[in-house]
Design a protein that fits this description.
The protein has 11 helices and 16 strands. By secondary structure, it is of the alpha+beta class. The chain has 2 domains: 125 residues, Creatine Amidinohydrolase, Chain A, domain 1 (3-Layer(aba) Sandwich), CATH 3.40.350; 231 residues, Creatine Amidinohydrolase, CATH 3.90.230. The strands form 3 sheets. A 6-stranded mixed β-sheet has the order 4-3-2-1-5-6, with helices on both faces. Strands 7, 8, 9, 10 and 16 form a 5-stranded mixed β-sheet that branches. The longest helix has 24 residues.
């Protein structure tokens, strides 16, 4: 079993102060834009047209709240030699000009609309107008006929771009490459986000007792995270008792009972950076089946962490995890997401994605500066319980640094009898 993790990545206070070096947001913006431009050059891309919200935030450093997440009503353009342009939801464009006047003015932050996921039909002409404007910009900058990389636009947008005879190529792969290496500022933000969840797990551990519902734990986690400064709680998985196996990936109003095994996943966003962070507990008492399942999940986790270093490949990690049939599933597609690794950053699922489904046939190299979560799952012999563990790791030249620090070396029993 791995030794108890000790914090090695900085997690300074969350406010800006004059007496300590903390996150430098100007440097953060420059890093993200430089990474994107470098990948554009390597891939031979003239421009990136972005609709996916995490990509927009990464390139433009703008956001208007998670009610707008991936609804397609805002988009950004980054060309080879021009600063980012953002077309945003109505008055948000003016707000950006006021909030970031050194980055945005009337020339690169304006209102835009491509139909609100089809709510405004093509007859209004919004799709064709947006495509024509994009084509006009490319023409003015001498980029007509060169590749325009688009990430995840609606079908109507792609069709409109096609009518402008633009050479549309896949932009999502370019953005995934740009986002896979984190800067020191990004690593601080990811660590701070995990520190918030450390505290929430202490609260959950103290609250777990018979008579509270899975949904009560979700409410507790939301409240504490927002009190600590979270900007968005994307999901809280709260699973107990017979709902643990198989993993349903959704909480319910089930009452937690004496002797239940329970696991939780907390996914939230702090200053744009996410967590994905599982922990498993027993409530009141733990059975042999509970302890054995936790031990197995921990062993699979430790075997994976031991392989995390620059130059290793994702197939090496995936190969130490069990095949699907070994833990009750017919094939790797059905078992996907249980023995699993995924990059964490401005998006929840970034590179590398590590699993037996994809990594054995298409491995990628692990690089210094990557940050990813490793997840393991072991069903218990009682046929109803299961253990779920997740650790977030930073890849360094000296090996993995764990940033998820709530104790997870052995099964913790809450309110033990």
């Amino acid at each position: 079993m791995a030794e108890f993790p000790v914090a090695t990545t900085p997690s300074p206070g969350m406010m800006a102060v004059d007496w300590e070096r903390r996150v430098d947001f100007g440097r953060l913006r420059e890093h993200r834009l430089e990474r994107t431009r470098r990948i554009m050059e390597e891939e031979g891309l003239a421009a990136l047209l972005l609709f996916e919200t995490s990509n927009i935030r990464y390139v433009t450093s703008t956001q208007i709240g998670y009610w707008a997440f991936n609804k397609g009503e805002r988009y950004a353009l980054l060309t080879r030699d021009h600063e980012p342009r953002i077309w945003d939801f109505g008055s948000a464009a003016k707000a950006h000009r006021l909030q970031l006047p050194d980055l945005y003015d009337e020339t690169n932050s304006v209102g835009g609309n491509t139909g609100l996921q089809g709510a405004i039909g093509p007859g209004a002409g919004l799709h064709t107008a947006a495509a024509a404007e994009i084509a006009g910009i490319l023409g003015e900058e001498g980029l007509a006929g060169e590749p325009l990389a688009v990430d995840m636009a609606e079908t109507s947008v792609f069709l409109a771009l096609q009518t402008e005879n633009l050479q549309v190529v896949d932009g999502q792969q370019a953005m995934m490459k740009a986002r896979e290496i984190k800067s020191p500022d990004e690593i601080i933000l990811l660590t701070q986000a995990c520190a918030m969840v450390d505290g929430v797990y202490q609260d959950i551990f103290e609250a777990l007792k018979p008579g509270i519902r899975e949904s009560d734990v979700v409410a507790l986690a939301h409240a504490r995270l927002f009190e600590m400064g979270s900007e968005f709680v994307e999901a809280v998985n709260s699973i107990a008792g017979e709902r643990c196996s198989p993993h349903p990936h959704v909480f319910s109003d089930r009452l937690i009972r004496p002797g239940d095994q329970a696991y939780f996943d907390i996914i939230h966003v702090f200053n744009g950076y996410r967590t994905c962070y599982y922990r498993t507990f027993a409530v009141g008492r733990a059975s042999t089946a509970h302890r054995d399942a936790f031990k197995q999940s921990r062993e699979w986790m430790d075997a994976a962490i031991e392989l995390v270093k620059p130059g290793a490949t994702t197939d090496q990690i995936a190969s130490v995890w069990p095949e699907a049939h070994e833990f009750g599933f017919d094939d790797e597609m059905d078992a996907f997401g249980l023995q699993f690794g995924h990059g964490v950053g401005v998006g929840l699922h970034e590179r590398p994605i590590i699993s037996r489904l994809n990594s054995l046939d298409d491995p990628i190299e692990i690089k210094e500066g990557m940050v990813f979560a490793l997840e393991t799952y072991a069903p218990a012999a009682d046929g109803r319980s299961a253990a779920r563990i997740e650790e977030e790791v930073v890849v360094t030249a000296d090996g993995p640094q764990i940033i998820t620090l709530f104790p997870c070396e052995e099964l913790m029993v809450a309110n033990e009898y």
